[in-house]
Write a structure and sequence with these properties.
Number of helices: 1
Helix content: 10-25%
Radius of gyration: 15 Å
Order of helices and strands: HEEEEEEEEE
Number of domains: 1
Distance between the termini: 35 Å
Strand content: 35-45%
Number of strands: 9
Shape: globular
């Protein structure tokens, strides 16, 4: 395994174990990345972003029937280290896209559209935080 994959695997294991991952950034000491509890926005809730590729989800508008937005708040980035996070849609729903609030970012290493579940890697600059949402329908 390459170093980035080992760090991602270690971070993922730590996140899955307790919601907070600690990873070593080369020469920078320990880094703590916090992944908040899962939040779900449903039909009638206000959408916090414009969903790329999904015209029905628009910032400030009610979420239409049939959609679920699954969110995880992420903070504590440093030295290019992020957390691997699994997003899973409820039964009968499939991933359509992702949306962001705050200064969160992510990398999806595989095609996820129309899958029920995927793992993404959160990325951002030092001190950034925000929420990553999976759009399910």
């Amino acid at each position: 395994m390459t170093k980035p994959r080992i760090l991602a695997a270690l971070t993922a294991a730590a996140v899955l174990a307790g919601g907070t991952g600690t990873a070593l950034a080369q020469g920078e000491g320990d880094t703590t990345i916090t992944v908040g509890p899962r939040t779900v926005l449903t039909a009638g809730d206000t959408a916090p972003f414009d969903a790329p590729g999904v015209r029905a989800i628009r910032r400030g508008q009610p979420i239409p029937s049939g959609y679920r937005l699954i969110g995880r708040q992420v903070s504590g980035y440093s030295g290019g280290i992020g957390a691997a996070i699994r997003f899973t849609c409820p039964d009968g729903k499939r991933l359509k896209t992702f949306g962001l609030t705050g200064h969160a970012g992510f990398l999806a290493e595989r095609a996820y559209v129309d899958h029920r579940s995927t793992v993404i890697v959160s990325i951002a600059r030092t001190g950034d935080s925000g929420t990553i949402y999976a759009v399910c329908r």
